[in-house]
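agent> fetching stored inputs for the zinc ion docking request
agent> found them:
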Amino acid sequence: MKKDIYILGIETSCDDTSISIVKNGTEVLSNVVWNQNKTHEKFGGIVPELGARRHLQVINFVLEEALHDAEISLQEISAIAVNNQKGLIRSLVVGVSAAKALAFSLNIPIISVHHIEGHIYSNILSHKNLDFPHLCLTVSGGHNLLVIVNNHFNYEVIGNTLDDAAGEIFDKVARHLGLGFPGGPVIDKLSKEGDSKKYNFARPMLDQENFDFSFSGLKTEATRVYEKVRNNQDFKLEDFVASFQQAVVDTLIGKSFKALKHYNLNTISIVGGVSANNKLREDFLKYSLKYGYQVYFPEMKLTTDNAAMIASVGYFKFINQQFDSLNLEVFTNNPL
Ligand code: KG4
Ligand code: ZN
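agent> prediction call returned; pasting tokens
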């Protein structure tokens, strides 16, 4: 009988301390996420120094909880997988140091994982029938890519953002509007009560024959229009954010469908924090049905940063014997 493989994943790229145990690549035994929103919300964004300190304070609790939830002991773990390739350096150092200590003391392999690769696998983990090749839109606060996933670990990046990521402008516009941090979930919720046709924002770069994005102009436009209309008698915040959200959604969908057509692909996977957005999900599903594409979203709890996605990548690398050395480094923004 084949031996079960248990990977312990660690993710500390930004403001979530997460440790997860995944069995055989797709069975999530535990996925503990210690969210730092409370630490950062009063600043309207992430303070890297505070983030790293918080990771250090809580990582041992998160580890204990992850083992407890999975009902497993450290001695049963097959390997440690850790994101070391995208994020805030000081935050990454906490996760990678913990991974090194565990791998060394347990005498098991350490496996390096790229954060975006993790997001791509959040859908492979959620849907066993998600086949290769497929197009993946990775969209969050820190990245906004279109990637053709040809096979395991075979990625072709066909589009990137030239400036801000979609999640980043949700956060920045929300901050300007005094809606707190992170902005995406608040805008998502408020938009349900708003008229998305009230304000006509640009759909940046949709008319261009490439698969890149540029959201910083839309952010500037939104803040400028807000200052102009906020004191109007008929101004409703819900209409404003719904119109802004619709511009982001239309742009992400427009570019993705262009890429599907151009590369003759029929499956799209949407991952990352912004893939939690209700309007994005609704519209992607609507148009995919209309044009005959297969569309996949991760389970809600796997959309934002989590270690289950890191552990899942770790499993597929483990069975390929793709191990790393304990001299593993950290990178702010390694190419995928
Ligand atoms: O994947 P993630 O946790 O971290 C990064 O890798 O950046 O994504 C966080 C981002 C934030 O910008 C947040 O505002 C956005 O995802 N987000 C959303 C929603 N939930 C989270 N954006 C739009 N709608 C949502 N429901
Ligand atoms: Zn992320």
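agent> quick read of the result: The radius of gyration is 20 Å.
agent> awaiting further instructions
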